[in-house]
Amino acid sequence: QSPVTDKRTLQATQRKVGSWVPILGWLPQYSLRENAFGDLFSGLSVASLHLPQGMAYAPLAALPAVYGLYTSFFPVLIYTIFCTSRHISIGTFSVVSMMVGSVTVRLAPDQNFLVNGTNGTTVNSAARDSARVQIACSLALLTGIFQILLGIVRFGFVVTYLSQPLIRAYTTASACQVASSQLKYLFGVSIARYSGPLSLIYTVVDVCRMLPKTRVVELVVVLIALAVLIGTKSINNHFKDKMIVPIPIELILVILATVITHYAGLIDKYGVTVVGAIPSGFRAPVIPDASYFPSIAGDAFSLAIVSYTINIALAKTFALKHGYKVDNNQEMIAVGLSNGIGSFFFCFNVSSSLARSLVQDSTGCKTQVVWLVTFACTILLNLDIGLAAAVGFSLFVYIIRSQL
């Protein structure tokens, strides 16, 4: 072959490898002078959010808090290597964590781990948590496999049918779902954990029924924390042009609350519920248990679609804002690898963080009727079924508009 042919072959190979491993394309051209300072402070800021969010979202998945920290580390590294988006923060996310929690609680409920002791019947929490971790890791692996396969067969075209009202309504309804799951902690009451259709309604009714048993100290702690969070975020927004980085209030609040809880004796004097000890370091990787696959296949596929939907919606928003393109199918593969490889390191399912403004309207639907249908379906039918129903309705509207 001639030198020209060899050069073209090399360039074609580089482009092919770069399409599968995007970091090989942009990292050699990275400008330290232009980007390093901003990236450093941005990374520190995002890292300060990962810590409290990881500990907060792990209980939504019915897992100990430390597994949220694992999930905030390993998948981030994998996604950085294989993604095409420059601004997505992958890791724990409330909606996805709740979907994982519905599976772990269903397959490993408390009643399966009851033991009789001198103080009566109690739950063997160590055995229960161990089983739920195995289920969550298996779920993440199977979800990752589904996403990788969908990316390979070019399933990313489905994002074309996700309208802006659909995404925004799903975001709003998801926030309501997450808020309802936190009500028992706000009032310090114990209620059953519900999953499936109408779970939000059952949760709110149970909390209202238990209001006379509200633990005042825990309610005061929550209200103070909310006031500090909202007030500081207002300050961040107001002075964002004058700040190098926003105040990492979530991390600061976790540190202060830990110190105050310990030295003020809130646990012994008032029985305030705490996260507990957090192990240091990482655990050696373990192959997830594939025997769970038959019982979690449907849930894994739902999670594959939901987490990808959230991820690509936000990725396209930032890509449009900053003038670059993202590859729909490569993003599917990147999230799949993050889930799949992360599962070996005791990570549960991941997705990107949501923002109020998401993707541009891809179907042309501008009416509020798409928004209302999506919101109602997600509130009443739960997150996975609600998304499926909303996408079905969006497709129906798209077909009708096209025919007319």
UniProtKB/TrEMBL annotation:
It comes from the Eukaryota. It is a multi-pass membrane protein. One of its GO terms (cellular component) is membrane. It is found in: Membrane. InterPro entries: SLC26A/SulP_dom, SLC26A/SulP_fam. Keywords: Membrane, Transmembrane, Transmembrane helix. PANTHER family: SULFATE TRANSPORTER (PTHR11814). This is SLC26A/SulP transporter domain-containing protein.
